[in-house]
Amino acid sequence: MKQLKKFKGTSIHISSANTALKETLKKGRKVKKKLDQIKDRNVKKRLKWIEYYHKTGNARKTCRHFGISPTTFYKWKKRYDNYGIEGLKDRNKRPYRTRKPEIEPEIEHLIITIREKYPTWSKEKISAFMKKYLNLKISPSTVYRVLKRYRLIERTQKLKSVFKKRKQKGKKNRTRRGLRADKPGTILIDVKYLYWCGKTFYQFTAIDKFTRIAFARIYSTKSSRNGRRFFKELEKFLPFKIEKVQTDNGSEFLGEFDEYLKKREIEHYFSYPRSPKTNAHVERFIQTTESELWMIEGTEPTIDEMNKKLLEYLMVYNFLRPHQYLNYKTPDEKFEDYIRSYQGVHHVLNLNKSLKRG
Predict the structure, then answer these.
(1) What is the pLDDT of residues 273-293, one digit of tens each?
(2) Structure confidence at residue 271 as a pLDDT band (50, 70, 90)
(3) Does the global pTM surpass 0.90?
């Protein structure tokens, strides 16, 4: 008989029949400790199969309990008996014999040299180049393996990422909610497409956000050169200086157009893609010209005739047509009110003292 002291001054007698229980608990603690040390989930799962089998002594019952086939169980039991827990790990499934590359070092050197000279060329281009100029028939897949082995693919990707970062350094000035205007000189510009008998014309349109004075001209192409021409005509038309310009991201507002604004020291802002609300004022004016001019008068076969109609409409829009937003005043009256309210604002005025009335 053994004595186990549970409390001070008190003893409990445990018979030798409980020795087997103590041994089982001891083994259980060891198994738990092993499971905690093992991080591989598959090893833990297979070790549970083995421990359950040792507990029950019945392989078929173990298979039914865990839902595995006897073939699978005996395979892992055999490995466990031979190698212990290490035997329960997944083995490397790579074939013992692998196909070795048969390309000669000289060919590899040629591929590497071409890639370093032309880092953006694809495997197909390098393969075609070697066949055409070096009379060497190398498949694109072979070229790819060589490039990958020498990490030349990653190098090209790195070059592309560096180039992308360089492009981002010259980011466009953007406005998410549109430019604010508390005085004349903030211009919104956009382009509208016009169609006549299969021909396409382009209406460059501009509006001052503060006074709502608008201007438009029609051209045969939508180019940055025509964008620059339009802006020069706009400067002559407006009675005030242009300080800020907001456009979308079209190519007609880059190139010569953008360079001209920089030369004139005029701030150029771009709206975010798929954000028409930032250019809402000029979009609205384009709709107005469509409903009040082109739907009624119709388009003409020549640009000169359409520009003549458009200029006549601009005179009505800027000098005669009441605007609800302006408390039923005209844009010209809005500008005159601003001049009268703020005496001495000559820095706002252009060389023109008032709008040209045709």
Answers:
(1) 877 778 888 999 999 999 999
(2) confident
(3) no
Q: Which CATH superfamily is domain 175-341 in?
A: Ribonuclease H-like superfamily/Ribonuclease H (3.30.420.10)
How many whole angstroms separate alpha carbon 150 and alpha carbon 42? 35
3-state class (DSSP) for residue 273: coil
| Short-list 124, 128, 108, CA closest to 116 | 108
| Residues whose CB falls within 8 Å of the CB of residue 113, separated by 6 or more in sequence, listed in order | none
Q: Give yes or no for a contact between 255 and 224, defined as CB atoms under 8 angstroms apart.
A: yes
Q: Cβ–Cβ contacts within 10 Å for residue 228, how many?
A: 19
Domain boundaries, the chain: 43-90, 113-162, 175-341
Q: Nearest CA to 200 among 189, 192, 210?
A: 192
Nearest-angstrom CA–CA distance, 310 and 214: 11
Handedness of CA 259, 261, 265, 267 (dihedral sign): negative
Q: Which two tokens stand for residue 130?
A: 């070697």
Closest CA to 146 of 104, 89, 186: 104
* Residue 71 burial (10 A CB sphere; 0-12, 13-18, 19+): exposed
pLDDT at 38 over 70: no
Task: Specify the 3-state DSSP secondary structure of 40.
Answer: coil
